[in-house]
């Protein structure tokens, strides 16, 4: 990867505005290019100096009073016209997400805060992948295409096997973020549904073997050979268990 | 004429809802795939529904008062001018609030503040026209500031004050106010790519300005 093209992305990288794939690419480049790494450090220093040395002015209380006084009274009609549903709607969303988070946390394990946010991340990652059309970074039914695609982007090798003969064709791969760590997501299909299999290094925190369900999603987790595995899908628990069993046999994990 | 322009801006911006469009797309995609995932859709940003503008002006707009004041204060130099602009901005925002259909009250308010500041700056003729920032600006040989020096941090606010307003505003919004590129783009009503190039130029200008101030400072000290 040449410096020129990486340099132009550096500010966006330092500003945290890059997507994960580019971010991982830049990080790989920075670890091998002292000049770019120094440039990135300079940008970070400038940013933190600005954050610390430039004042953010806040509105003087007198001005706020003056503004409140000049604003005509809030027209009550506007609020009154809204149905209860409209008022409650945004809160329903918050309540639902809160409930989902709590539920996921409750299910995933009472002991490990870490594991809890992991499972929530994984389920959110699975849901998000279906929502925004970001299911795949590399679309291929060929394990020999998917595996090398990951090679340049992450520093571990997820075992990629095709399970089409067992009814779970591999359809591609994606980079995702689980609990702030890059993870490989392998996407398998089961009829009309998808399975996200997240794989990432266990970093001395192997995932406990187990399965759970929350909010209509099934998860199966295990750890093997320094890698954590977490399968997420909305297919029935028995089907997901079948998938995991097949994957583990074929991949030898 | 200025006020017509402003009203147009408010109207235009209020109806330009980038996020609602995206959200509709997401909803369509989700509905096509799996209804159960809809529950998760609620986890994303408030889903803009038709007529989903917050009922409460205070909740949607007034709570961004510090952001509004900070921007005006940095754009106007004189605290009194900044106060006038912000006060005017809230009044106009309040009048136009019934038509506001966006989901981002902060960007909407900041756009109004910025437009008012610009028209006042033009009246005062303290700042030159909008095209002051030379699009062909070539980077001066990159200045390298050593940020550990106290002088650098002490003189930084002054350096920012001395920058042309287009450079100043993008830095205020991104570095001080912490707006993401897309939010800066919404406030300044420019494309994302332009935000990135303006930001890059503004950073260079700021460092060059700071360097100059530090050299002057050093000369005085001797």
Q: What is the number of E strands of chain A?
A: 7
Q: Give the total of beta strands of chain B.
A: 0
- Describe the main β-sheet of chain A briefly: 7 strands, antiparallel
What is Rg of chain A? 24 Å
Under the CATH scheme, the architecture of the largest domain in chain A is 2-Layer Sandwich
Helical/strand content category of chain A: alpha+beta
Amount of helix of chain A: 40-55%
Strand content of chain A: 15-25%
**Count of helices of chain B?**
11
Measured distance between first and last alpha carbons of chain A: 33 Å
User: Percent range for helical residues of chain B?
Assistant: 55-70%
Q: Number of folding domains of chain A?
A: 2
Written overview of the protein:
The complex is a heterodimer of chains A (about 250) and B (about 220). Chain A is α+β, with helices and mostly antiparallel strands. Chain A has two domains: about 5-55, Arc Repressor Mutant, subunit A (Orthogonal Bundle); about 85-250, Phosphorylase Kinase, domain 1 (2-Layer Sandwich). Helices cover about 50% and strands about 20% of the residues of chain A. Chain A has nine helices and seven strands; from the N terminus they run H-H-H-H-H-H-H-E-H-E-E-E-E-E-E-H. Chain A has helices at about 5-15, 20-30, 35-55, 60-70, 75-80, 85-110, 115-130, 145-150, 235-250, and strands at about 140, 170-180, 180-190, 195-200, 210-215, 215-225, 225-235. Chain A has a seven-stranded antiparallel beta sheet with strand order 1-2-3-4-7-6-5, sandwiched between helices. In chain A, a hairpin with a 2-residue loop joins strand 3 (about 180-190) and strand 4 (about 195-200). Mean pLDDT of chain A is about 80; it is low at about 75-80. Chain B is mainly alpha-helical. In chain B, helix 9 (about 165-175) packs across helix 11. Chain B folds into two domains: about 1-125, no CATH class; about 140-220, Winged helix-like DNA-binding domain superfamily/Winged helix DNA-binding domain (Arc Repressor Mutant, subunit A, Orthogonal Bundle), CATH 1.10.10.10. In chain B, about 70% of the residues lie in helices and about 0% in strands. Chain B has eleven helices and no strands. Chain B has helices at about 1-15, 20-35, 40, 55-60, 65-75, 80-95, 105-125, 150-160, 165-175, 180-190, 190-220. The model of chain B is unreliable at about 1-55 and about 130-140 (pLDDT under 50). The chains are: A alpha+beta (about 250), B mainly alpha (about 220). Chains A and B meet through helix 3, helix 4, helix 6 and helix 7 of A and helix 2, helix 3, helix 5, helix 6 and helix 8 of B.
